[in-house]
């Protein structure tokens, strides 16, 4: 098991809250991390995709009351939304008996459904922890390129070869399309949703154009929005909102859309190794999305992320409004000799960020004119992780 950065955070939340929800896409390592915790705490584990385990919860209050002294781990909890009301009663009963933390660990791979269900029933009783795919702070620095090409799902990253990694990712995509999504309720043909997902990969980091996507799929804009909401809810796609404020400029109002895992992008486009990725037009957008996912995974809680673009061409790839009112501007460049466009300088003149960075493919850190720091991805992630102590 690769040590995960969020382990200490998860343990701290379990020591503070009666219930903790560990959220992340399938195969990201939630169950592995939960099993590691179960080995260190008296626990009972239930997989809600397993019929025998589901049968145990026919009367959830009766069954779970028999394990009130243990940490109960409920995997794929969104499969049984009716549980949340029962959990509320059990948590309140435990509080009356003096147990204030560490009763339930809920694992879920469908964020909005789980948040809505638990938020209604467990308000004030639950904390949320997001587990993302592996990032640059969790792997050897020399493996950064492999992480980008294969993506951060552990089985893909750790595969014995690029071919084995590609096979795993294709199986992952097929399973989501043919089993997981239909099981969650939406009646969308698997081939249609794959085409949509692939179209998003082709346009990685582009502005959302629902009309264009709709024409390609022969559906209307509302249907495109429904497909996109589904992939966002499943933590497979990210909508990065545009910056909105009264800056006296005409601002772009459409969000940018990113397939969140770079390895999934490459598989959707049939790119099996580093050379294939570098030879494809998506390389720049794939790298940009990879950087954004890593930075947001390291950013402190409460950080607001957006991008800045005016109709006149001023642009910043990523704005991070950090806790305390600090704003960082981040430009992302694939290559070893990053050059800034004039639009970035104009955007910085508009917004006056506290710090400006260029994240590039190299390993050195140095300053450019205009008080701009050129930095590698791992270095900026480390600064975010140490914020506000980081200089």
Describe this entry's structure for a reader.
There is one protein chain. With 391 residues, the chain is α/β, with parallel strands linked by helices. It has helices at residues 7-14, 30-38, 51-56, 60-65, 83-96, 111-121, 144-150, 154-157, 162-184, 190-202, 210-217, 221-233, 262-268, 274-278, 283-298, 342-351, 377-386, and strands at residues 19-23, 43-47, 71-75, 104-108, 126-130, 237-240, 256-259, 304-309, 315-322, 326-332, 355-360, 366-368, 372-376. The protein folds into two domains: 7-130, Rossmann fold, CATH 3.40.50; 141-386, no CATH class. Helices cover 43% and strands 17% of the residues. The strands form three sheets. A six-stranded mixed β-sheet has the order 8-9-10-11-13-12. A five-stranded parallel β-sheet has the order 2-3-4-1-5, sandwiched between helices. A hairpin with a 3-residue loop joins strand 12 (366-368) and strand 13 (372-376). Helix 11 (210-217) crosses helix 12 (221-233) and helix 15 (283-298) runs parallel beside helix 17. The model has no long low-confidence stretch (mean pLDDT 92). Residues 178-334 form the DUF4143 domain. This is AAA family ATPase.
């Amino acid at each position: 098991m690769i040590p995960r950065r969020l382990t200490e955070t998860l343990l701290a939340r379990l020591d503070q809250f009666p219930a903790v929800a560990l959220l992340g896409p399938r195969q990201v390592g939630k169950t592995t991390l939960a099993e590691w915790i179960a080995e260190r705490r008296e626990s009972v584990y239930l997989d809600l995709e397993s019929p025998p385990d589901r049968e145990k919860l026919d009367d959830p209050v009766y069954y779970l009351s028999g394990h009130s002294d243990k940490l109960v781990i409920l995997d794929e909890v969104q499969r049984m939304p009716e549980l949340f009301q029962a959990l509320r009663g059990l948590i309140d009963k435990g509080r009356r008996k003096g147990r204030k933390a560490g009763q339930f660990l809920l694992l879920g791979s469908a964020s909005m459904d789980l948040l809505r269900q638990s938020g209604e029933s467990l308000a004030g009783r639950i904390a949320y922890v997001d587990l993302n795919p592996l990032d640059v702070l969790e792997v050897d620095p020399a493996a950064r390129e492999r992480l980008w090409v294969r993506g951060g799902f552990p089985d893909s990253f750790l595969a014995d070869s690029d071919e084995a990694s590609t096979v795993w990712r294709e199986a992952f995509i097929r399973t989501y399309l043919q089993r997981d999504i239909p099981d969650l309720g939406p009646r969308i043909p698997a081939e249609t949703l794959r085409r949509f997902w692939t179209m998003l990969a082709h346009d990685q980091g582009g502005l959302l154009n629902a009309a264009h996507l709709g024409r390609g799929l022969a559906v209307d804009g509302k249907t495109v929005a429904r497909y996109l909401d589904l992939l966002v809810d499943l933590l497979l796609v990210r909508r990065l909102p545009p910056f909105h404020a009264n800056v006296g400029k005409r601002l772009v109002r459409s969000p940018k859309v990113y397939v969140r895992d770079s390895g999934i992008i490459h598989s959707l486009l049939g790119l099996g190794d580093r050379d294939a990725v570098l030879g494809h037009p998506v390389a720049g957008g794939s790298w940009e999305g990879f950087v954004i996912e890593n930075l947001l995974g390291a950013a402190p809680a409460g950080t607001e992320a957006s991008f800045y673009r005016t109709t006149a061409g001023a642009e910043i790839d990523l704005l991070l409004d950090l806790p305390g009112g600090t704003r960082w501007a981040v430009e992302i460049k694939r290559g070893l000799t990053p050059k800034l466009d004039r639009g970035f300088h104009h955007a910085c003149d508009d917004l006056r960020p506290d710090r400006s960075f260029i994240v590039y493919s190299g390993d050195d850190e140095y300053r450019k004119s205009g008080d701009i720091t050129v930095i590698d991805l791992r270095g900026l992630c480390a600064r975010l992780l140490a914020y506000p102590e980081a200089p």
